Give the backbone structure.
Amino acid sequence: MCIRDRTYRISEDLNFRANSRYGRSGLQNLGNTCFMNSSLQCLSAVWELTSHFITNKFLSELNRENVLGTRGHLACTYAELLKRLYFGTDSYVSPWDFKKVIGKFAPQFDGYSQQDSQELLSYLLDGLHEDLNRVHKKPIVETIESNNRPDHEVAIESWTNHMKRNNSIILDLMYGQYKSTLICPKCNRVSITFDPFNMVSLPIATVEQTAYYIYFIFRDSRKTPIKMEFTLPSFAPLKELHTLIAEALGIPDSNITFNLMQKSRFDSYPKPLDDMKYLKNHPALLFAMENLHPALDADVTDPADAVNFMINFRQFTLRGSAPGARFSFPRSIFISRKATLRQLHLKVFALLRPYLKYYGEMTQDDVDINLKSDSYETIAKEFEALLLNSNKKIYKVLQISRSRKARDEEDALAYVAVDEKEDQYVDLIIPQDYEKGIPLELELCFASSLQIEYLKLNKCNDFDRPEKLRRTHKTCTIYDCIELFAQNEKLEKDNSWYCNKCKDHMQATKKMELYKAPPILILHLKRFRTSRVSSIGNYFFSHGNQKITALVDFPTTGLDLSNHILGRCDQPPIYDLFAVSNHYGGMGGGHYTAYAMNFKDKLWYEFDDSHVSKTSPDNVVTAAAYVLFYRRRDYTELLSRQTQA
């Protein structure tokens, strides 16, 4: 049966049947109307509102004279669409009538271009509110300011003032209250007002991320260096990078040190407690070096007495010319201060021996290099044979540290033979300003007749870390977004505030906080932004021609706003999720879908236009989430009792 007049066509006496869809029907895409379908499916999941429409209770509140609404057309058309979704038996329905009404009263949604689901939802809430506004003659009211009065007193007065002009089921269910604080930058005047809202638009707290490339050098020179990549927050401590590398390679993080190389010189040595911004402020190649090796450095009995040498390999050039080109990644050795210079040479030779081909006419067979043995005796014997057959001219020491040329030390190191200067110790060549933990650079130029497998020595492999180590940073949560929403911000010039004390428009400091939360809380994640970027601490955010694709983690049950609501709460502000509007793709296009929990069977469904399928609540938290619908726990419990009855 239909109620007919010259304006409306309202069906009545409809009831659920055995094969009714109970809101589990899809909506046909009429041509780029997925944004509309997504918003409608989410809003229809508000059973407290939907039951008001499908039972025609809304008719007693229909405001046919309100010029701020659609004179009832939107509310009536929406009610008829809901009846088809809930009482109907079709797997999907076509929202043609609804689309026509929307296009007539909101020309921005006319036609078939892609639109924004949040913008449509905002229009629907405002339009339905005005169509069902119980106030038919709105009085003129003034904005109420605190004037140093208690917040609760001003908030109640502001809410009462708002109710004089606005009173509907939409307000009952979905309207909350902000506390807005404005501070004039010139006269420091503070203006506090309490303003209504039906949706909270939250900036996404995207943490600044940077990809870092690290060259890891093993202490064992036979192991090929590897190039590693990790993405971390810029404010994370370097200790986190230590930990990631250690877990990836199975090396204690205490056995890893970092070195920065710039223009072929080691420039600085970041510490674990430094943050990642240190690396941004020191653009250079980042090397991670393995420290003491239990087998290769067994001779270092006292780690506190160890000296770290960074070996840089170069080739000889003509006499008097600059040092030759570096032909390898640096390598690292550790040796005791009490060791002899000959033992230092042996350590250097041990690094090089796996890559030595021949010296002049001498081959590996002549030197009899046995890579199966790393014993001190084997290495010493091979080194002695090499020295005797090469007239001691294997390499020349160019420099021992960044700040000091090794003139006297050069003679001590460069041509030491197996039978001379054995009584000279490493301690004699350590600079007086040597700092423990900072490696000494040892620049070695090798004779051109020394043939080395350069390609093998300079090889570097990309490291493909296991999936379990592919974490990069802490996920942004909905609580982070709420905290960011409540931060101070400076108004833009084109949105300045009029200070009635200065008698001028000022770029005031503004702070918005949640004072009162409604039973049905709608949270809009501001994924679309302009190129203007703002920052608060370590969080960077902006607001249109880009899309933020970061995952925002939000709870499906138990969203606790106790620490975020300033006002007194009659009921604990704990909420459960029941619908999500999703956006996939980028700016100016993409596709909208929805997740919603059905009021009858309490199961979650995915609505993709005309296609509807069951899903799990574990699947609804995605990087596509755009608008979130939450129901306060006391309303959740009430709804559960009503549906069971």
User: Anything to note?
Assistant: The first helix runs from residue 34 to 44. Residues 20 and 401 are 84 Å apart (CA to CA). The two ends are 27 Å apart (CA to CA).
